[in-house]
Every structure is written in C-alpha cells, then in structure tokens.
Amino acid sequence: MKKTISIIFIIFLLMPAFLLITPFNNALAVQPDEILSDSKLEKRAREISKGLRCLVCQNQSIDDSNADLAKDLRIIVRERLLVGDSDKQVEEYLIDRYGNYVLLEPPVNSQTMILWLGPLIILSFGMVAVAIWYRGIKKTNNKNSDDRNEDDNKNDINIVKLNADEQLRLDTILKE
Amino acid sequence: MRSLRLYAILPLVLFIGLTAYFLAGLWGAQNKGNRFIPSAMVNKPVPDFNLPSFNQNFPALATADLKGKTQIVNFFASWCVPCLAEHPLITKLSKRDDVEINGIAYSDTGKNIAKWLNKHGNPYDRVGVDAGRRIGIDWGVTGVPETYIINKGGVIIYKHGGPLRIDVINDEIIPLLEEQAE
C-alpha cells in the first residue's frame, strides 16, 4: 500500500519532465491543411507566426491559438510567403492593418522608448546614487585616518583618541 | 549628506512616476471599452474592396461607394449578439441625413443576413457580405461589431471596437459627424 502511494507520488513528481519529452509541448494550432508543401517556407511561416499576436486572445501567438482570426492570419502569412515576400514584408503587411500591436514583442520606436529605456534609466540613477554614497563613506574614512596620522605624530601610543568620559573610565579601570 | 539623500530617492521617484504613467494608460484603455486596440487604419484611405450584397435587389458595397459624403461602415453579423444590442442605435443614426450607413456582414452568408435584416429591420444604405473575412482583415477588424467613420475624401477618421453605446454616439460619433458636415 505504502509502496503504491510512493510510486504514484513519484509519477506525479515526474510529470513536468514528461511534458518536456512528449510532442505535446509544441502542440499546434496549425491544421494539416494549412501546412505548406515547401518545408523551408513552412518553417519560416512558423517562425513568423510565433511573433504575431492573436488579436482576439491577445497574449497568444497565432501559432498557438485556435481562434478563427488566428487561422486566417496564419493562412495570410503563408500566402504572402508563397508570393515571395520576405519575413519583414509579411510582418509589415499585418502591421499596416493592425498596427505594431500585432507584434508580440514591441518594436523600439519613439512611442515605446520609455518601455525599453525606463528600467535602464532607473538602474543608472541607482548606480550613480550608490557611487556617490560610497564615495561619501570613503571620504569620511580618509578624513578619520588623516586625523589619526596627525595624532600618531604627536603621540605614538595614542592610536584612538579618547574623549574626556572615556579617558576618565580608562583611568579608573587602570587604578583598580 | 542632504544632496546624497536626494540622489538616493530619485529611483523611487522615477519608479512611482512610471507606475502612474502606465496605470493612467491602462485606465484610459479601460474607459475606451474592453476591446480597446489602437487602430492602425485611422488616417488611412479605405482599403480596396468590392463585396456582393445579400441579394440582387439591394445595393452592394465597394470602395468607390465610400466617397462624397461622410460614411459609417459597420461590421456586423447575424450570429453576433452584441451586434443585435447596438442595432437600435445604428437604426437611430441612419435617420440622420449628414451620413450614409454601410454594413459589412463579417463571416456570414447572404441568406442569414437577409433573414436577420428582415427580422430586425435594415438601417443600411448598402450591405456587403464578407463571407471569407478577408476584407475585414484588410480593415484591421478583430471581431464584430466594429464601426468606422470615413470622411468625404474616403479616409478613415474614426474607429470604435465593440458594440456602440449611447455615450459613444453622443460624445464621439455625433460631434465628428457635425464637424464633417461643416
């Protein structure tokens, strides 16, 4: 009984690994009748499709989605390739109709600059702030050691300057 | 020490600023309806197309028809429930004489459209049947209903995704129509 349970448990643990090795992982929305006979073109179509948004499901690529519109767009991608468009031209064709929104990865342009550069700007400000803070610490340390050097010249034994209170305590302790 | 604190606080200030910027964008999108997708077609001429009508006795729709007067193009379908919801509003708009109303039946058949218009009334001046959805894609349609306004020169000047509402008509569409009539 215990053995059976542990075997089931192990199978459950291994499940994610099964997902990786079975063809389920790249389960297609692409239907057999859509696939081009030219395997090179089909491969390009698949690559392009992965970067195009299924506009009705919004966070899926048309390569993943079973929506009608995604199917229409997959067919259009293949048609454009058949008439000799480059990958870029296929994307342009859809951008003309649906805007940059059809691309899953936003392109770098004046509208999306803040999206791409925002984190970098914040990071650099943070780094500058840390650098200034660090330099401040170093300066204070240098100043302290300069003071010490002066004291050292006056009195070799006195490494740390004691204030009046501390001196008093030290004296009492030494007297005991 | 004072200036140092100011520098250290800058990333936080920037972060809050960016958060506010993105949130404002999200809220703005929400107010424009849950189907908000920025349209690439606004300010572009009407795409080239020529669609058959649902029957021979009713005017069909082609690019050449969408000129001379301000035009509304409404993508709809007999199987589409929100289209039925906005139908009375389209009918009301069709009473205006400063605009012509055109319907494009998206992913539908002439037979079904004829039945639907017969049942609910036909507010359209022309109807084209886009059974294969190809013309819809040329217009950048992602789903029905969608409504476009075309100026006298045949350029798309406005798009609304999703069913029309009375506030959209009063606040956006009618002011645009009046502006075009001037």
Percent of residues in beta strands of chain A: under 5%
* Spatial shape of chain B: elongated
- Our count of helices of chain A gives 6
Share in helix of chain A: 55-70%
> Structural class of the helix and strand makeup of chain A?
mainly alpha
Could you spell the SSE succession of chain A in H and E letters?
HHHHHH
- Gyration radius of chain B, to the nearest Å? 21 Å
Instruction: Kindly report how far apart the N and C termini of chain A lie.
Output: 76 Å
Instruction: Find the biggest chain interface.
Output: A-B, 25 and 24 residues
Question: What do the pLDDT scores of chain A average to?
Answer: 82
Topology:
The complex is a heterodimer of chains A (176) and B (182).
Chain A: H1 2-21, H2 39-50, H3 68-82, H4 87-98, H5 113-154, H6 164-175
Helix pairs in contact in A: 2-3, 3-4
Chain B: H1 2-31, E1 50-51, E2 61-62, E3 71-76, H2 81-93, E4 100-106, H3 110-120, E5 126-130, H4 134-138, E6 146-150, E7 156-161, H5 166-181
Model description:
Chain A has 176 residues and is mainly alpha-helical. Chain A has helices at residues 2-21, 39-50, 68-82, 87-98, 113-154, 164-175. Chain A contains 6 helices and no strands. With 182 residues, chain B is of the alpha/beta class. Chain B contains 5 helices and 7 strands. Chain B has helices spanning 2-31, 81-93, 110-120, 134-138, 166-181, and strands at 50-51, 61-62, 71-76, 100-106, 126-130, 146-150, 156-161. Chain B has a 5-stranded mixed sheet. In chain B, strands 1-2 form a two-stranded antiparallel ribbon. Chain B is elongated. Classes of the chains: A mainly alpha (176), B alpha/beta (182). Chain A binds chain B through residues 55-56, 68-69, 72-73, 76, 95-101, 114, 118, 121-122, 125-126, 128-129, 132-133, 136, and chain B through 1, 4, 7-8, 10-11, 14-15, 18, 21, 37-41, 107, 133-134, 137-140, 142-143.
